[in-house]
Every structure is written in C-alpha cells, then in structure tokens.
Write a structure and sequence with these properties.
Layout: H1 10-18, H2 21-31, E1 48-49, E2 63-65, E3 70-79, E4 87-95, E5 101-103, E6 106-110, E7 114-120, E8 130-132, H3 138-141, E9 153-159, E10 165-170, H4 177-183, E11 186-192, H5 194-203, E12 211-219, E13 240-243, E14 246-247, E15 249-253, E16 257-264, E17 271-276, E18 285-290, E19 293-301, E20 303-306, E21 311-317, E22 326-331, E23 363-370, E24 397-405, E25 411-413, H6 418-421, E26 425-430, E27 434-441, E28 448-452, E29 457-463, H7 467-471, E30 489-492, E31 497-503, E32 512-518, H8 521-525, E33 529-535
Parallel strand pairs: 1-15, 2-6, 3-7, 6-11, 12-16, 15-23, 24-27, 26-33
Antiparallel strand pairs: 3-4, 4-5, 7-9, 8-10, 10-11, 12-13, 13-14, 16-21, 17-20, 17-22, 18-19, 18-21, 22-23, 24-25, 27-31, 28-30, 28-32, 29-31, 32-33
C-alpha cells in the first residue's frame, strides 16, 4: 500500500460498510464524544508497583550518565508486562560489565556535557535515534535523513546545548516511526543545569522518591499479550496505558511536595492530565516546566493537555494528606474534535483497537499512595524558577502553514506531503534569523501536535481556539500556561491558528536539514512532514 496516498482507512471503510444511512445519525450522536467517567471504585485494579528510573534494568528503569560513552544495541526482548505471556518489546539495549542488559536506559546529562552514544542496529530494518528536543546539527538529529541500516552502527556525538528539562530519544525511520515507537524504541533524557539544581535544593525533593520521570504510552495488546500495530493505519491508540511500561501503576511516596515529569510517548493519544482525590475533587497543582525546561515562574492549574511528544513538569502539594491516602492521576474527558472523516460517517476505535478507550474519554492513569515510610519534601517553592528570553519580535519574518486533509485522506502541510516532495527541503531559513510561523489548522481536521526538529520556540499567540483552550488562557494573546514556556511541540486544534517564534541561531556552518511534522506518528508516516534547510 502507498502510505502517502491512503484514500480511506480500514476503520472508515468498515464503518461505512456496517452502518446504514438511516442509523448513522443516531450512532454519531452517541459516539461523537462519549465522556465515560471513572471513579474511586475502579482504583482497586491499580496494584503494580511503578517502575522508577534508576532502580532496575527493565524498560527505562535503569539510568546512566552521559559522562562516559554509551553503547546501545537495538533488539527484541521478551518481557512480562501483563498477566500471562511475555510481550515482545523492541528496545535499545545496553549491556553492562556484569552481563545484564539495561533496556531504554534513562540518560542523565548536564548542560555543556558531551554526549557520545553509539547505536548498533540489530533490528532487521533501518532505524535511528532521534534526540527529541535537542539543539543539534543535521547528522546528529537522528531523523530519517540518515538511517542506520541493519548490521551497521553510528555514533551520535554532540554537546548538550539545552537548558534543564525532560527530553527523550526515539526511533525515527521514514514510514516506520509509528511502528518502531509503538513497539518500544523510546527512552528518557534528564538534563540538569544550575537553575534546576537550585530548585531541587529549595524543594528538598529526591530523585526516585518524590521526583519521578513518567514515560506515558498506550499500547494495543492482542492475543498472548502481543503488541499489535498496523502499518498505514489511522492514528493508532491502544487498549492499555502504561507508565514507565507499568500497567495499572502505583507510586508510593511521602507527603509534602511530589514532583512528576511527564512525557507523552504515545503514537496518537492526547491526555488531559489532572489529579483527583477519592471524592473526585480536583487537586490543583503547580506547572513548573514544559518541553524545554522550567517556566519563569510556577503557575497553579487544575489540568493541562499533554499531546504526543510533549512534556510537563508538575508539582503536587500533598502535605495535608496522611499515610494511606490515595490520589489518582487521571486524563479528564474532553472533546477530541476529530472532524476529519472523509466518508461523512463516524469513526469507532473498537474496529482497529479492541478494548481501547475512545479518544477524549476519561482514563485513570496512575494511583499515588502516601506512605509513612517514604521521605517527605517540605522545602519551599521559589517565586522565580528560571530566566529565559520571552520577548516577541515585531520585525521577524512571518511564514504561514496550513494543516488540512485531502478528499483522498492524505494529510497535507500547505501543499506539501513528504511522499510527494521526496524528502527535499521545501524552504530555507537563514541561520541566525528569527521567524514567526503561523500554523492554521482547518476546521475539517483533528488536533495536530506539530514538532520542529533541532530548535525550541516561544508561542506568541492563539486565535480562534476551542472552548477548552479559551477557558485556560493565561493572557490576552490566548496563550495557555504551558504556552509560556519553551516548546518543541505545539498542539493546534481544528479551526485554530497558533503563532510560534523560532530563533534559528546555531554554531554550525553550511546547510543543515531538519524536519517539521505532526507528531501523531501515523500522520507523520503518511507524509504530514517536510524538510527545511538552515543555511549560512
């Protein structure tokens, strides 16, 4: 099948065949936006101890410092995830001196350190390591421009120029990114700088106890716990949400401050993150940071959207809770605004994803249980977290982008599709320039998390936003609290225009090509992606 010219998805074809015209209106009214809630009665199913980076060797729990060279080898590992049969997980394996293998190790780096990671590809197909969110040159970006073939190796070597923050690495081969990430090729990178270390000292938090990184992803499990994926499918959602590869996870922690650093490694699922007590009341939390580090100051919120590839740094004050009390991290219901049907018929995820919670329905994600045996963080939250430039340039060159879908079902970025442009750069940017990109998503569309490789950006404004975003606006530009940080991925809703400002300064010479694409990985693989060049 031509992945760049998908006229109708399997899901849409099946629906069109099984729903009569007479019954379609009623079906659509029921299924368009179900808001099935969850309650404390369901919390008893959360019984699995959360895997935490630094505490063992399976699936992102183990950690390593980039202070020395690291060697990773792709492979397939049989690992127990759910009750019953082990699942085949694709991972980046690191063999230690004692013969044990760390899978997708969490990497720790300090700003200014040199990263040196050699990828040995034994996967049976092309793959890469994309250093998501990092400021790098073309060769070290790890996009599909420079695939590592089976049996070959490549060393990624670059200085960490980024501020503190939670970043991640994942496979990024052309046309198979969705498959390889869904199967497991993804891990976390924690970057620290002086501002971050000062915050940890002020809060009194300890890594692995009350400062936890969370890799969130939903997987589609079939018979014998096999992870299933269909190439050339629509946005791929799963029937089980895993956090650090733990199903129905429980985090035991002490009272006081609890810091959670969230990364959405799902292929397509969007979460609306919140925290609720046993009575169902929301617990406000502090938003500390976003994709590329700390905000200027903490902002109190009740919930925040977390789109694929985005990160959130949040702080809970559980000082008033007692040992034995529980809190649920939940994805609240929201209108998914999936307005992209080319058949005029509704979509039903159960056809491709049996057992999956429909997009926009509530999902309980992780139970937090207070324990008297865990350390408490009882420090103070600073009024100022970090300093970075937030000025908006009035003289910046403006570039417009349109997100839309053809009648054939092909996703487009302006009039470009990667499979039509054959990977050629479709525009050039002058190195050192500052540009404002105005990204407009057509109403007949769906939410698109748009990612820029190699650079971070500021959000300068939102226009024509849906109610959920207007309600969360933090200023007169329509920006939400998480829009006030530095980002590398921005969620654009149907009918909305989002403006972002990018500083293209970098210490490299010559032409360097980067990607701009939707991080719904199925959209990316179907060609909702372009290359652009940064030139002298």
């Amino acid at each position: 099948m031509d992945r760049g010219n998908i006229s109708l998805s399997r899901r849409r074809l099946l629906i069109a065949g099984v729903i009569s015209a007479a019954g379609a209106a009623g079906y659509f009214a029921i299924k368009k936006w179900q808001k099935r809630g969850t309650s404390a009665a369901n919390w008893a199913t959360f019984t699995n101890k959360l895997r935490i980076p630094g505490h063992s060797t399976q699936l992102g729990e183990a950690s390593d410092s980039i202070a020395h060279p690291i060697s990773l080898q792709t492979g397939v590992f049989a690992l127990p995830l759910l009750d019953g049969s082990a699942s085949d997980v694709w991972g980046y394996g690191q063999r230690l001196a004692d013969g044990t293998v760390q899978i997708n190790p969490t990497l720790f780096a300090k700003t200014g350190q040199a990263l040196n990671v050699t990828l040995h590809n034994r996967l049976g197909d092309d793959t890469t390591i994309h250093w998501h969110g990092f400021s790098v040159d073309e060769l070290n970006d790890g996009g599909g421009l420079h695939p590592v073939k089976h049996g070959e190796q490549f060393t990624y070597a670059f200085p960490v120029r980024n501020r503190s923050g939670l970043y991640w690495y994942h496979a990024h081969p052309h046309s198979q990114t969705g498959l390889q990430v869904h199967k497991g090729l993804a891990g976390l990178v924690v970057v620290e700088d002086d501002e971050e270390l000062q915050l940890q000292k002020s809060l009194g938090t300890q890594w692995g106890e009350n400062d936890i990184a969370l890799l969130i992803s939903d997987k589609q499990f079939g018979p014998r716990n096999k992870m299933e994926y269909e190439l050339a499918a629509d946005d791929w959602i799963g029937n089980k949400v895993l956090i650090n590869w733990t199903p129905d996870p429980v985090l035991e922690t002490g009272a006081g401050w609890v810091r959670l650093r969230l990364a959405n490694a799902s292929n397509a699922r969007l979460y609306r993150v919140a925290f609720v007590g046993e009575g169902g009341d929301p617990i406000p939390f502090q938003l500390l940071g976003t994709d590329s580090g700390l905000l200027n100051k903490p902002i109190s919120v009740n919930d925040a959207f977390l789109a694929p590839a985005q990160r959130l740094d949040v702080l809970l004050d559980l000082g008033k809770f007692s040992a034995g009390d529980v809190v649920m991290m939940r994805s609240l219901p929201y209108d998914p605004m999936e307005n992209d049907m080319t058949t005029g018929m509704p979509e039903d995820p159960m056809l491709e994803h049996p057992g999956a919670t429909p997009m926009g329905d509530a999902i309980d994600l992780m139970l937090i249980r207070l324990s008297a045996n865990k350390p408490k963080a009882t420090g103070s939250l600073p009024a100022v977290l970090s300093t970075f430039a937030t000025g908006i340039s009035d003289s910046a060159y403006r570039r417009a982008f349109r997100l839309w879908i053809q009648e054939s079902g092909r996703w487009m970025l302006n009039n470009w599709n990667f499979h039509q442009s054959h990977g050629q750069s479709v525009f050039q940017v002058k190195r050192g320039a500052t540009e404002i990109w105005e990204i407009t998503n057509e109403m007949r569309s769906m939410p698109h998390p748009m990612h820029v490789h190699g650079f971070q950006f500021l959000v300068t404004g939102r226009q024509n936003s849906p109610h959920a975003m207007k309600h969360a606006a933090a200023d007169n530009r329509g920006r939400t609290p998480q829009d006030l940080g530095l980002l590398d991925t921005i969620l654009v809703w149907p009918g909305e225009t989002v403006s972002i400002q990018i500083d293209f300064s970098q210490p490299y010479q010559g032409e360097h090509r980067y990607m701009f694409h939707c991080h719904n990985l199925e959209h990316e693989d179907q060609g909702m992606m372009v290359h652009f060049s940064v030139v002298d």
